[in-house]
Structures are given as C-alpha cells and as structure tokens.
C-alpha cells in the first residue's frame, strides 16, 4: 500500500472507530450562515446539529441577523431567531436537548456590537447560565488581549495556529477556525491530492496539539467532503445543508463496513459452459434484493472477485409486476417460477386470481425432482412462489398447507412455527442436522433452520446456506432423476430494507459461497445449468467510496423499499448463452423450459 493509501486508511479507521470498535463516534456539525435557512435555528436544532452560526449587524440599537446593512430584514434579529428559541427549547425540554454552540459572527464594528450583545444577553439568564449552551464570538472581534474584559460566558473564535502565551486569555478561546481555501483548492468532488491531504492533515493536527476544537470555514460542502472531514478529525464540520449533512454523517455507522468474511473463489473449468449439449439438472439461485451494487459491494469487499464474477454468460432482467412499476418479492418470485407476470402480493396466482402451474409442478410431469432452500422462512414469498398458490403472501397458514400438496422432494428454510401439521404425514423425512440431508435414503427430506426467522450471518448463522446447498445437491443427485433446485439468499433484501451495509455485504458474500457449491457441482456433473439472479433491487443502493485492499465498503441509499432497476442474471453450463441479453423476468421460466427441450 502506498503512503497516501495508508494515510487515508489510518484516518478512516480512527475517524470511524465506532463502526469497528466498541462505541459509536459522534460528530459535531456546524450550521454555517444558519440565519439564511428557511427555518433558522429550528432546522439545525431538530436535525441534531451542535453548532449554529448567526451573522449579526448592529443598526439603530438593534442586533439584526444579517450579513450586512444592505441585507437587513425587519424583525429578523438575533433575539427573535436564536435567543428566544434557545430559551424555549431548554425551558420546555423540547427535542433531544443536545448541547449547542452559538457562534455569533459580528459583521458590524466589534466594540459597540459586543456592548449591545452583553446588554441583550442580560435579558436571557437561562441562556447564558445554561451549561449546555456555549456562546462564541467570531468575525469582527476585539483585540485578543481584551478577551478577558468580557463576561466569562463569552468565548472567542481564534483564527491562528499560534497559541497565545497568556493562559487566562487562551482559556477564553473556544475553538480554532481557518479558511480551507488557504490549504487546498479542493471542491469536495473526487479526492484530495497527496500534497493537499498532507497539508490539511497537518493543519488539523496542529490545532489539536493546541488543545482546541477545530473548524474549517469556506470548506467544500458535499457528502464526500463531510466524510473526509469526519475521517480527518475536524471537530465542527461546516455545512449549509443541515438536514442532509446530519442524515449522512449520523448514518455513517450503518453505511460503512469493514468486511471480515470471505468467500473462497472457485475457478470454473468451463468444460460444459455455453456448450450445445443436453441439460439434466437446473439450479436457480436467487439473491433477494440483490442488485448490481449489492453484488459489487460483495465483490469489492471480497478482494475484488467472487465465484460469481468468474461467469461469462451475463444479462439483465426487467422486474416490473403486472400491476405496478415496482415489484414485490411475491410477484417477482411468481414471474420467475411460472413464466407469467402477476399482481404484487400474489403467490403462484395469475392476474385473473387463478393458480398458474409453476416450474416444480411442470417439471414433475417430466419426472424431475425439485427442491427449495432459503434463509427465509420456507413460507416466504420467494420460496412460496415455487410450490404454493395463494392470493396474498400473508396467507401464511394456507401457504404452509400448500407445501403438503407440493411436488417438492427437498426443502430447507426457517419457520417451523408456521406449520400446524406434521410434515412427515406428507412423506417428508424431517432431519435436525444439515449433514443428514446428504446422507439420508428417504424419498423426501425437509429441515427447519429455525422456529421463526432464520438468523443472519451477523447473528451467527454460519455456513448453513452453502452447507444446505451442498447437501441438497448430494441428496437430489443420488435419486437417478433429473432435478431442479431453487436456492435463495434471502437476507440481502432484509438488510437493504434497513439500509445496513454490513448486512448486505456479509449476506452477499455468504450467497457467493452457495454459488460456489452450485458451480463446482455443475463442473463435476457436466450436464447441470446454473442460473443466478435476483427478484428485484432493494434500497437504491450505491457505493460511493471504499477500500478494496482492506475490505471497506461505504454504501448509500435512496429508499428503504424496492426499486424498479433491472437486475443482473448470470448463467453457467450447457446453453448458458441463452440467458444473455435483456428481457422480462417472466422469460427466465420459458428459457429454462426451452434449453431443457421440454
């Protein structure tokens, strides 16, 4: 790693210790020129900001909140906009009661303005006596030697990296503020140059060595800039966008993740890939919510490659449901399983509310065995679409009853509590250990991974998905019949709904371990087609920054819900090239039937 990368990563780890360590670091955000906001004070305070700046100009004995005499607006005074609200929020216990630094930037002559300020503050004893409120004077200030001539509740903004020798005067310094443009022309896009990074870092370190909090004014105001300043230890991050900066900075702990898991990359032989030869078995792996950025995050966190990225046959599928621009998992699962688009919430039902034959039922007519493996409850929307027929995905008991009537020979998933009947009555041999699936002589086998929801990787699920896939393939392949197996990595979607990057990455890498089992089986068999796709994208996920060498991923989101984005589809094995291109999700079913020659 070169020195610049080392420096970036050092500050990344230190600045975001709360993501990886035992406590969450908090950041102070400074609302620059706050009086220009649509709701001065209230916008910053309700978004949890800790520092608020107001310019003041003295005219005719009134302290206006304004940058200059020409910009004065009647009624907009420091009292109306700041002192009265400050008094109110603390006396009425409104909001989070966070500590507030009120930075008063004097734009008129300092001595007369300060004299008036002191006079005005006498009317607000609850403000000047409140330890949660600090008042700092900036802009046009008196001489440094005169700081001690003013009441002790007034502190001062210091604009030099040379400490004052007088201890009493130095004690009146609240913070150090400097013009960012003197150290770098960076506009907040892309990255700081090596020289600028070193210059900015040295400046911050010097301020901290003096024992004072530090702020840049005139600094770039963007997500990239906020993150860099947080990493570099700027104590008050300057912004003109209080709500957006607070939302971004305060969510960093959920959006930045250093991966520790690893999916060992399997290098396929490509012996059967894209060959025009008979297919005996089909394995369909579905990453729930697993869009291109989710896949990219797992790849980058895994050192830059996964088993999935070894595949050559790649396409895109469109996910819209029959009745909505954006699909849910039920309609998307039904489209994949039946070849027909349907309305959101439908499980194996058409737009006419009548059952549609699904792929496990169709293949049963051709002597295929079928199985479903999922990290969701087995009655979840995606697995349910491959064996059940219900008008609504929430008809849990009815979906569970459909499993008794299904053509499945294998199932693995969570949610034993959803079943009132003994599945053994329908011929399923129920096992308690995943390894038993691969060794049983039973005709049908089932296993519940949990009574209710299946734990996530972050909650200690371990290698259950890959182990179930390997043992499920072993079970099906010993029956001397062709088979279809659906494997779902369900919790990628769950964490994308929560906008949690750690969960997306850990579940995505775990999904790749199941893909490895499928691809290696396809290589051994020579007649197995593997298809990997998603039902939809979740979260509007993107990856603005990260560090591939150290497995660090920063993610960002546009929603907590599904999106209408196309999702990738990968294929490996005979006829895998048939899955290239761009097409509707319902075409996956028809392409499978076509390449099987049925």
TrEMBL record:
Cite a single GO MF annotation.
alkaline phosphatase activity
What UniProt keywords apply to this chain's record, in alphabetical order?
Hydrolase, Phosphoprotein
SUPFAM superfamilies in the record, alphabetically?
Alkaline phosphatase-like, PLC-like phosphodiesterases
Where are the bilayer-spanning segments?
Answer: none
Its EC number is 3.1.3.1
Q: Which family does it belong to?
A: Belongs to the alkaline phosphatase family.
What is the recorded name of this protein? Alkaline phosphatase
Organism of this sequence:
Arenibacter antarcticus
């Amino acid at each position: 790693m070169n020195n610049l990368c080392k420096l970036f990563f050092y500050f990344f780890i230190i600045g975001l210790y709360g993501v990886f360590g035992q406590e969450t670091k908090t950041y102070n955000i400074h609302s620059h020129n706050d009086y220009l906001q649509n709701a001065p004070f209230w916008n910053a305070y309700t978004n949890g900001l800790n520092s608020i700046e107001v310019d003041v100009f003295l005219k005719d004995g009134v302290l206006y909140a304004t940058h200059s005499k020409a910009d004065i607006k009647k009624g907009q005074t420091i009292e109306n906009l700041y002192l009265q609200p400050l008094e109110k929020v603390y006396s009425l216990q409104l909001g989070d009661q966070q500590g507030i630094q009120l930075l008063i930037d004097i734009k008129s002559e300092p001595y007369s303005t300060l004299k008036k300020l002191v006079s005005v503050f006498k009317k607000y004893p609850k403000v000047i006596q409140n330890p949660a409120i600090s008042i700092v004077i900036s802009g046009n200030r008196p001489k440094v030697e005169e700081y001690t001539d003013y009441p002790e509740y007034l502190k001062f903004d210091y604009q030099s990296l040379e400490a004052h020798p007088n201890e009493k005067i130095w004690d009146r310094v609240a913070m150090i503020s400097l013009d960012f443009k003197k150290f770098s022309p960076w506009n907040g896009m892309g990255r700081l140059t090596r020289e600028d990074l070193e210059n900015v870092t040295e400046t911050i370190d010097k301020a901290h060595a003096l024992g004072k909090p530090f702020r840049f004014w005139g600094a770039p105001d963007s997500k990239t800039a906020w993150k860099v300043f947080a990493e570099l230890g700027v104590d008050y991050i300057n912004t003109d966008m209080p709500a957006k900066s607070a939302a971004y900075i305060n969510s960093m702990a959920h959006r930045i993740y250093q991966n520790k898991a690893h999916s060992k990359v399997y290098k396929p032989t490509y012996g059967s890939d894209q060959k025009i030869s008979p297919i005996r078995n089909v394995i369909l792996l579905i990453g729930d919510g697993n869009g291109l950025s989710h896949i990219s995050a797992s790849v980058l966190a895994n050192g830059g490659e996964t088993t999935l990225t070894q595949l050559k046959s790649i396409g895109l599928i469109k996910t819209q449901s029959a009745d909505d621009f954006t699909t849910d998992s039920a309609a998307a699962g039904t489209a994949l399983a039946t070849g027909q688009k349907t309305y959101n919430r439908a499980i194996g039902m058409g737009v006419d509310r009548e059952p549609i034959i699904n792929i496990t039922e169709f293949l049963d007519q051709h002597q295929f065995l079928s199985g479903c493996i999922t990290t969701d409850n087995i009655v979840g929307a995606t697995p349910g679409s491959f064996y059940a027929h219900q008008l609504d995905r929430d008809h849990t008991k009815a979906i569970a009853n459909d499993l008794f009537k299904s053509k499945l020979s294998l199932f693995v998933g969570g949610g034993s509590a959803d079943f009132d009947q003994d599945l053994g009555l329908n011929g399923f041999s129920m096992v308690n250990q995943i390894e038993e699936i691969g060794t049983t002589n039973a005709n049908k086998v089932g296993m519940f991974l949990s009574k209710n929801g299946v734990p996530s990787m972050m909650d200690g699920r371990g290698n259950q998905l890959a182990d179930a896939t390997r043992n499920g393939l072993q079970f099906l392949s010993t029956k001397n019949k062709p088979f279809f197996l659906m494997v779902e990595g369900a919790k990628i979607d769950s964490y994308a709904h929560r906008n949690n990057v750690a969960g997306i990455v850990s579940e995505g890498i775990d999904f790749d371990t199941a893909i490895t089992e499928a691809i290696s089986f396809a290589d051994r068999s020579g007649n197995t087609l593997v298809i990997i796709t998603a039902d939809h994208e979740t979260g509007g996920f993107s990856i603005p920054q990260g560090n591939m060498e150290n497995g660090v991923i920063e993610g960002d989101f546009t929603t907590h819900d599904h999106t209408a984005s196309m999702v990738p589809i990968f294929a490996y094995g005979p006829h895998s090239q048939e899955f290239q291109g761009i097409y509707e999700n319902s075409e996956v079913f028809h392409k499978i039937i076509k390449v099987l020659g049925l």
